[in-house]
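Sequence, please.
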C-alpha cells in the first residue's frame, strides 16, 4: 500500500482519554477510532492485524478438529428463556425489539443458539463428538468499558462449542482446546498461562482462563517459573491419543497451577521457583455438562436406543482484545513492535528523498516485488517524520532508501524488534524479509 493514498491517521500527541500503552498506541498508530463508548471502527491497519490474528486462531481450531461456521449477531429472546438465562443475564445484555414487537438481543455469547441448531439437526450418538466454532462480533453492555479494545462493548470473539456423549468425552474435547489455545497464543508471540477460573454467567464446574503477562493486566497471577520453558509446539505435546492429551493437560496445569488470590489455597509445595505478576485474560474455556442441553431439550438416541443428553463445553478467545494484549506485551517508548505473524505489513519502505531518480527507482522496484506485504511511505515528508511513524506503527522491518546508498544500489535494513541496522543490497534486503 502507498501511505500517501491510505487512511492511516497517525497522531503525534498522546490522546488524553487513553490510560494504558496499548490504547494510546492503537489510537496514535491509526489502528482504530472510537465511534461510541466501547465501540470501535477498525481502520485499514487495525483491520489487517485483526484478520491476521483471526487467521491464526482459525488454523489452530481447524487443526484441533473444530468446524468453522457463522451464527448471527442478533438472537431471539425466546432461546434464552428456554435456558433460563434471559432474566439472569441482567443489564449487560443489549435487548432489542423488532417492528413486530418481538424481543431480540445482540448476542453476548452463543450457547443457546448452537444448542438450538444442534437439537434440530443431530439425532444419533453416532454423530458425536463434534466441535463447532465461529468468529463473530459480540455485544456486552459493560458498566465500565475501558482500555480501548481490551474491555469494549462490541468486540470480536472466537467461540467454540463441543458436544460429547459423556463426561469422559467432554474432558477430551476440553483438553484438545487447551492445547490448541496454547499453540495459538505462542504463534501470536505470547506466553499464556492457563489459570483455574470462576465460571461466572456461563456456568459449569471446570474452567480455565488463559492469562498473558503484562504489568497493566487486571488479574494477579502466581505461577511456577518452570512454566516459561513449556513449548506447546514441541513433540512433547500432541493430540494423537487420549493418553497424549491427558499427559499434556497434566503438564500444562499441574504442578504449574497458576491462580489468582481468589483460588488459593493451591498446592504450591514442591514448586521451587514461584513467580507472580499481572495478567490479561485473552481466553476462557468451560466444561458445563448438560447445563444448556438439559433445559433446552437436546437429546439424541444413545447406543442403547435410550435418549442421551450431550455434555457440552464452550471455548472463547478475545480476538479483538488480543490486539491490545499483544501491544501491551510488545512495545517501547517509540511505539509498537509487531510480532511478524500479526503485523499489518511485513515491512515499511521509507523513501527519504522523493523525486531523487535513484531513490524512486529502487523504491518502485521493491514496491513491485513486495506489493501488498509492504507499506510504502511515499509521502512528501521529512525523514524524521517517516522514521518516527515507522517506529510508532511497529513494522517488523524498515527498508530505508536514501540518496547516498541508492547511488550504490544499497538500502538500510532495520529490524524493529532489536533496533539492529545493516546496509545491504536490495536483493539481500528482500531475502532477509522473506
Ligand atoms: N461463552 C464463553 C466461551 S465461548 C464466553 O463467553 N466466555 S468469556 O465471557 O470468558 O469470553 C471469552 C473471551 O472474550 C474472554 O476471555 C475475553 O478475552 C474476551 N472478552 C470478554 N469480554 C470482553 C470485552 N468486554 N471486550 C473485549 N473482549 C472481551
Amino acid at each position: 500500500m502507498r501511505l500517501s493514498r491510505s487512511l492511516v491517521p497517525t497522531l503525534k500527541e498522546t490522546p488524553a482519554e487513553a490510560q494504558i500503552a496499548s490504547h494510546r498506541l492503537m489510537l496514535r498508530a491509526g489502528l482504530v477510532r472510537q465511534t461510541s463508548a466501547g465501540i470501535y471502527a477498525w481502520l485499514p491497519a487495525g483491520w489487517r492485524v485483526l484478520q491476521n490474528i483471526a487467521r491464526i486462531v482459525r488454523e489452530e481450531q481447524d487443526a484441533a478438529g473444530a468446524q468453522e461456521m457463522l451464527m448471527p449477531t442478533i438472537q431471539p429472546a425466546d432461546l434464552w428463556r428456554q435456558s433460563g438465562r434471559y432474566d439472569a443475564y441482567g443489564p449487560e445484555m443489549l435487548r432489542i425489539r423488532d417492528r413486530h414487537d418481538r424481543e431480540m438481543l445482540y448476542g453476548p455469547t452463543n450457547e443457546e443458539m448452537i444448542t438450538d441448531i444442534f437439537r434440530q439437526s443431530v439425532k444419533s450418538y453416532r454423530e458425536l463428538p463434534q466441535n463447532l466454532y465461529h468468529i463473530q462480533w459480540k455485544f456486552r453492555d459493560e458498566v465500565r468499558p475501558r482500555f480501548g479494545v481490551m474491555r469494549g462493548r462490541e468486540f470480536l470473539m472466537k467461540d467454540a462449542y463441543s458436544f460429547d456423549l459423556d463426561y469422559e468425552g467432554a474432558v477430551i474435547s476440553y483438553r484438545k482446546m487447551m492445547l490448541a489455545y496454547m499453540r495459538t497464543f505462542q504463534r501470536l508471540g505470547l506466553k499464556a498461562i492457563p489459570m483455574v477460573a470462576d465460571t461466572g454467567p456461563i456456568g459449569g464446574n471446570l474452567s480455565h482462563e488463559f492469562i498473558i503477562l503484562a504489568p497493566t493486566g487486571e488479574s494477579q497471577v502466581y505461577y511456577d517459573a518452570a512454566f516459561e520453558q513449556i513449548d506447546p509446539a514441541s513433540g512433547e505435546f500432541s493430540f494423537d491419543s487420549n493418553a497424549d492429551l491427558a499427559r499434556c493437560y497434566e503438564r500444562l496445569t499441574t504442578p504449574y497451577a497458576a491462580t489468582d488470590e481468589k483460588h488459593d489455597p493451591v498446592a504450591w509445595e514442591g514448586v521451587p521457583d514461584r513467580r507472580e505478576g499481572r495478567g490479561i485474560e485473552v481466553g476462557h474455556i468451560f466444561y458445563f455438562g448438560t447445563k444448556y442441553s438439559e433445559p433446552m431439550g437436546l437429546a439424541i438416541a444413545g447406543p442403547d436406543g435410550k435418549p442421551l443428553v450431550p455434555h457440552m463445553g464452550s471455548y472463547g478467545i478475545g480476538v479483538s482484545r488480543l490486539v491490545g494484549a499483544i501491544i501491551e506485551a510488545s512495545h517501547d517508548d517509540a511505539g509498537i513492535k509487531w510480532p511478524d505473524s500479526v503485523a499489518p505489513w511485513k515491512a515499511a519502505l521509507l523513501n527519504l528523498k522523493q523525486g531523487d531518480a535513484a531513490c524512486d527507482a529502487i523504491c518502485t522496484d521493491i514496491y513491485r516485488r513486495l506489493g501488498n506485504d509492504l507499506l510504502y511511505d511515499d509521502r512528501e515528508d521529512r525523514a524524521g517524520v517517516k522514521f518516527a511513524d515507522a517506529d510508532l506503527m511497529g513494522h517488523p522491518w524498515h527498508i530505508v532508501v536514501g540518496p547516498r546508498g541508492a547511488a550504490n544500489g544499497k538500502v538500510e535494513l532495520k529490524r524493529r524488534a532489536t533496533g539492529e541496522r545493516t546496509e545491504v543490497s536490495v536483493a539481500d534486503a528482500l531475502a532477509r524479509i522473506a
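The chain has a mean pLDDT of 94.
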